[in-house]
Design a protein that fits this description.
The structure is a homodimer.
Chain A (H helix, E strand, L loop, with lengths): L4 E6 L5 H10 L5 E5 L11 H15 L4 E6 L2 H6 L1 H7 L4 E2 L2 H11 L4 E6 L1 H6 L1 H9 L4 E6 L3 H6 L8 H16 L4 E4 L8 H8 L4 E4 H15 L12 E5 L6 H9 L7 E3 L4
Parallel strand pairs in A: 1-2, 1-3, 2-9, 3-4, 5-6, 5-7, 7-8, 9-10
Helix pairs in contact in A: 1-11, 5-7, 5-11, 9-10
């Protein structure tokens, strides 16, 4: 048993899609969430800046006594993971491996699609991991730089004409390539899942990277006998770098439930 | 005569639309430009964070010996101007007053439109300034949160279907209100001018806030006999907070010419 909390962080609100899964799987765990809302988005910035920001984010989380940190951000997982693992001793869980394992298992044709931020797609991290699992897989990737601004501005409904148009534009090459599995390589994208599924059509399996990472972390804690006491409900505490005003409303959309727990502002970097 | 340089800053690249006008008006001036590309966009952040960032930006520019600073950012001009003026002695020029003076002079009907970031529209600064000039004016405002992400991602061509759709969505209430003059209350928006003009139709005058501010600053320097030596061409130096890679290509789109001058990265905040 390990009563310490789990840290979860993202550039903004996207990581809450991973948090949602984590709470469902492990309702007894205490969780510290950090969203860098004063500097979101990350995925259109340079590799150097993303690494710099990620380092500051993990440093902040390590000011708590944590048993593990979930890097619930596709951009940081693909761009800064090696640096973070070299610099920090707390066990870190990114979204790449868990999502790729699910995608390779789900794909019948081996024709797998990947969508992510420009930094994520540019890193080639998902492609390398897919090919390491299945050397005959065929990966088609597309950067979707407008998805995070759309979602962070509350634009994700499938009947939103702008969403519909942008989804069709970005996904057209993946549909043309006939992918049977699509990795949503950014934790913001599950909010667009309905619009994406509507465009891709039935028979294309969508992989939720945040949920996959949460499942992998839950497995790690179970195997290591590091879960919290199962007799009490876990508590969540939220930290954001911009004003907490408006956070609860937006966060409840990502979490599919009200935010239960304190929300505080913190300066990082 | 005053040989000191002029400082120009923006959250990102938008301020280059003001710089372009400044260079055209005052080709002999030395200019230091700072774009906070590691933290753009500002206009969807809280007032407190915008003020904090603006204070750091001006502090960086004041490390040079400047005769004036052009706040070439609608969000900072409407949200942080009073704080900056109280804290810094260098003459500061924002975009509100110059643009409003032009808009009130241009409008025949007194029916004036304003578009800007959520922070700019939420501040009410343009509305107050318009009514101070013409108490019978009627102002219709619309926040356009997706315009900056679109422009910073190179999406502004009038035949871009996403641009066309978003422009129509945001401007519909202003067209319905019958405005005869439209203030582009963000220095990114002149790149969308063609798409905006196509939607609004002939007879609607667009006010370029960055250009208006540059004209006001030029007038101030001329009147104060503070122009630089007119026998030598001015030099420009560019600082950005994210990697300079890619800056020259994007900046040349905003400037309508190649970037002449050094581009360096700097850490602020």
């Amino acid at each position: 048993m390990d009563q310490r909390a789990i840290g979860v962080f993202d550039s903004g609100l996207g990581g809450l899609t991973a948090l949602r899964e984590l709470i469902a799987l492990l309702p007894h765990e205490h969780i510290i969430y950090f969203g860098d809302t004063a500097r979101v988005p990350y995925g259109t910035r340079s590799r150097e800046t993303i690494i710099n920001y990620a380092r500051q984010d993990v440093s902040f989380l390590r000011s708590f006594d944590l048993k593990a940190i979930l890097i619930a951000c596709g951009t940081v997982s693909t761009t800064a993971m090696e640096t973070l693992e070299a610099e920090f001793s707390t066990p870190l869980f990114g979204v790449v491996e868990p999502a790729v394992a699910q995608a390779v298992a789900a794909s019948v044709s081996g024709c797998i699609g990947l969508i992510g931020t420009p930094a994520t797609v540019g890193s080639g991290a998902f492609e390398r991991a897919i090919l390491a699992h299945n050397s005959t897989a065929h990966v088609t990737s597309a950067a979707c730089p407008l998805f995070v601004p759309l979602v962070e501005n509350g634009r994700y409904e499938p009947d939103d004409k702008v969403v519909e148009l942008v989804v069709a534009e970005y996904l057209q090459p993946l549909k043309a390539a006939g992918v049977d599995t699509l990795v949503l390589g950014c934790t913001h994208y599950p909010l667009l899942a309905e619009a994406i599924a509507a465009y891709m059509g039935e028979g294309v399996r969508l992989i939720n990277t945040g949920a996959a990472a949460a499942q992998a972390l839950a497995g790690f804690l179970r195997e290591g006998d590091a879960l919290s006491d199962a007799t009490a409900r876990g508590e969540q505490k939220f930290y954001v770098s911009d004003s907490p005003e408006g956070f609860e409303r937006l966060a409840s959309i990502f979490l599919h439930t009200d935010v239960c727990g304190e929300v505080a502002q913190v300066t990082v970097g």
